[in-house]
């Protein structure tokens, strides 16, 4: 009887479904880098496919694309909390990465790496990814598709490190028994972008990583084999770490004793079928895959491919709206369909919008709006030469907004050589058709003497035309002219009135200007409380100078209780946005009496302010160096020595040789 009960109990236990594992993944794809870094074509597609692959395997997926350093740090902090208590944590990174002195760093899209010293301030250390996974219980997996050629190898100056940045990434071994780190290629080697729309590594990961019943280390071996074969032996992925237990990322049955997946597994042949059809251009093939394997690893990718292959110019009878309109319509397009919801420039999904608009043009070659929408999509995707051609076609068809965007490409030298005269020609054409923003651009070129001789009267005339068209930035520019007495008699009351108009129109910089006028009694009665109100409005609208000025109020106790810690918080927020006053003020507080005071760290921040061209930092060193602590001054001299501009004693005495060295660092701001 006891034996029968035991068997019955065992049967009940076996028959119960296992508790579902909790699996969390963070996917980071950085593609839109500024020079000298290379814009990458594959990360958006890599992320899309990896997201579909992992979600199909039951992962909770978080995606971050084209992220700056602050956004990457915030995402890692949030993910560290999210993954705590999960069975499996995974981070996949597609983008640029570098190795310096044996440490690996991932490069945010806003990184500015003039020298190797900038690396630790501008990038994300690989160790930060490993720490973010600390709370995962069963498996911590990091996958790095970040071994592309180092874009800063020739441009980055060697100052403070033992060696210059190298090609590829360095091998990192983890002491944890449940940690694996997968690399797209071998240490010191360069990963390839491949011929397709995805990297070879991401392609292989999507094929093998979540195959039901396939153990994760076996999956990574299969990935390595695929990549090696696909690249003709030029790229050999590898991994570090090992596991003491069997871990599978995909749903389904585990291998039986023979090492094969059970015959009743509905996903047994999904990977093989996908390998046969994945390059197909026939929508029917993916429909067939979904019919055969509706709940398997590649189902979501198949659905995405079906959507990509669907007719993108399916004109709706009532509106004539196309997929191109839905993905890239612009608010300021004079030819936009009234029914189409406008998409902000930085919100365009250019990977989908570009083929959609190209297809729309093939089917409707005379439709004006499609060329502008294609130009916007190409422009956002950093495909500037093609954007230039699309904008020119739209401009030739009479689109004044395309004319303005074409002028901006000439002004910035994107997709063509920099040509201010040609930029002015197109800004004028756009302005003459009533484009208010282009009117302001014409004024700016007259103000700065670019493409035309400097002419302040002409600049002010164009600013007024733009302001009459409701353009807030032009109102701010008029305020600046009256504030500084440029081409007109200085009139602070008139300046304040124009700043108020601009602020009411949404100009964050003008909100800060109003706060400054109120705080200093310029053209209006001094009112600290009202100044703080405008600074807070400016900061909420993203203006870094407004954030810095809030910090000064907290530091000095103006209309708020004096609080240097709160001041530091605001200064750091401003500094993170590149505000030179914020950088300088962080240095000053770190050399003072805040909780985390550190004169050596203060000196490093001060050097950063000098390199950013902050005049007050240079002036203070030359005129009042004794305002800084002796420890600060010695550390700054050491930094100057490492930079190769100072050869004197580290005594904290700022004589002529130290001043010359500081000026040398300051003058490097333009390099």
TrEMBL record:
One term of GO molecular function: cysteine-type endopeptidase activity
Domain Caspase family p20, chain residue ranges per copy: 21-151
Pfam families documented for this protein: Peptidase_C14, Sel1
The organism's place on the tree of life at top rank: Bacteria
Alphabetical list of InterPro entries matching this protein: Caspase-like_dom_sf, Pept_C14_caspase, Pept_C14_p20, Sel1-like, Sel1_AlgK, TPR-like_helical_dom_sf
Coiled-coil regions listed: none
Record-level GO BP terms: proteolysis
Name assigned to this protein: Caspase family p20 domain-containing protein
Top-level taxonomy: Bacteria, Pseudomonadati, Pseudomonadota, Alphaproteobacteria, Hyphomicrobiales
């Amino acid at each position: 009887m006891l034996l029968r009960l035991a068997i019955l109990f065992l049967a009940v236990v076996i028959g119960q479904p296992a508790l579902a594992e909790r699996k969390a993944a963070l996917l980071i794809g950085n593609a839109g880098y500024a020079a000298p870094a290379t814009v990458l074509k594959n990360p958006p597609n890599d992320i899309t496919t990896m997201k579909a692959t992992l979600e199909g395997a039951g992962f909770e997926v978080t995606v971050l694309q084209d992220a700056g350093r602050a956004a990457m740090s915030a995402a890692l902090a949030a993910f560290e909390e999210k993954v705590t208590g999960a069975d499996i944590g995974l981070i996949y990174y597609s983008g640029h990465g570098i190795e310096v002195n044996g440490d690996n760093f991932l490069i945010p899209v806003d990184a500015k790496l003039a020298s190797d010293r900038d690396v630790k301030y501008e990038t994300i250390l690989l160790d930060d990814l490993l720490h973010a996974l600390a709370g995962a219980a069963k498996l911590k997996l990091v996958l790095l598709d970040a071994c592309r050629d180092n874009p800063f190898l020739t441009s980055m100056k060697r100052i403070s490190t033992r060696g210059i940045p190298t090609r590829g990434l360095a091998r990192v071994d983890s002491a944890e028994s449940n940690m694996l780190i997968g690399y797209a290629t071998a240490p010191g080697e360069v990963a390839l972008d491949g011929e397709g729309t995805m990297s070879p590594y991401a392609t292989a990961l999507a094929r093998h990583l979540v195959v039901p019943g396939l153990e994760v280390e076996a999956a990574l071996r299969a990935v390595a084999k695929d990549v090696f074969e696909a690249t003709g032996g030029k790229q050999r992925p590898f991994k570090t770490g090992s596991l003491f237990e069997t871990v599978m990322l995909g749903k389904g049955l585990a291998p039986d004793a023979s090492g094969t997946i059970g015959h009743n597994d509905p996903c047994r042949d999904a990977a093989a079928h996908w390998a046969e059809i994945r390059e197909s251009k026939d929508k029917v093939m993916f429909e067939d895959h979904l019919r055969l394997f509706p709940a398997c690893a590649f189902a979501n990718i198949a659905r995405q491919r079906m959507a990509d292959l669907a007719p993108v110019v399916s004109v709706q009878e009532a509106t004539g709206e196309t997929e191109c309109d839905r993905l890239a319509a612009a608010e300021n397009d004079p030819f936009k369909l009234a029914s189409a919801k406008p998409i902000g420039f930085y919100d365009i999904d250019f990977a989908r919008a570009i083929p959609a608009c190209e297809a729309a043009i093939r089917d409707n070659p005379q439709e004006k709006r499609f060329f502008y929408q294609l130009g916007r999509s190409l422009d956002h995707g950093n495909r500037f030469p093609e954007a230039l051609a699309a904008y020119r076609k739209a401009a030739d068809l009479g689109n004044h907004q395309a004319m303005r965007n074409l002028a901006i490409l000439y002004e910035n030298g994107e997709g063509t050589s920099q040509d201010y005269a040609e930029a002015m020609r197109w800004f004028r054409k756009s302005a003459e058709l009533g484009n208010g923003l282009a009117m302001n651009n014409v004024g700016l070129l007259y103000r700065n003497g670019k493409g035309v001789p400097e002419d302040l009267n002409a600049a002010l005339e164009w600013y007024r035309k733009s302001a009459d068209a409701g353009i807030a930035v032009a109102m701010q520019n008029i305020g600046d002219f009256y504030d500084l007495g440029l081409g007109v008699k200085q009139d602070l009351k008139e300046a304040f009135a124009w700043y108020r108009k601009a602020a009411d129109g949404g100009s964050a910089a003008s909100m800060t200007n109003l706060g400054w006028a109120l705080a200093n009694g310029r053209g209006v009665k001094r009112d600290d409380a009202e100044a703080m109100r405008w600074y807070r409005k400016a900061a909420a609208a993203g203006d870094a100078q407004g954030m810095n000025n809030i910090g000064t109020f907290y530091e000095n106790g103006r209309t708020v209780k004096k609080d240097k810690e709160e001041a530091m918080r605001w200064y750091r927020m401003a500094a993170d946005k590149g505000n030179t006053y914020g950088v300088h003020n962080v240095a000053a507080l770190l050399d003072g009496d805040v909780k985390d005071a550190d004169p050596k760290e203060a000196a490093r921040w001060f050097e950063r302010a000098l390199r950013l061209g902050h005049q007050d930092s240079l002036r203070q060193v030359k005129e009042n160096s004794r305002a800084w602590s002796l420890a600060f001054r010695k550390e700054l001299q050491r930094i100057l020595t490492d930079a190769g501009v100072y050869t004197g004693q580290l005594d904290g005495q700022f004589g002529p040789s130290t001043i010359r060295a500081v000026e040398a660092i300051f003058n490097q701001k333009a390099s």
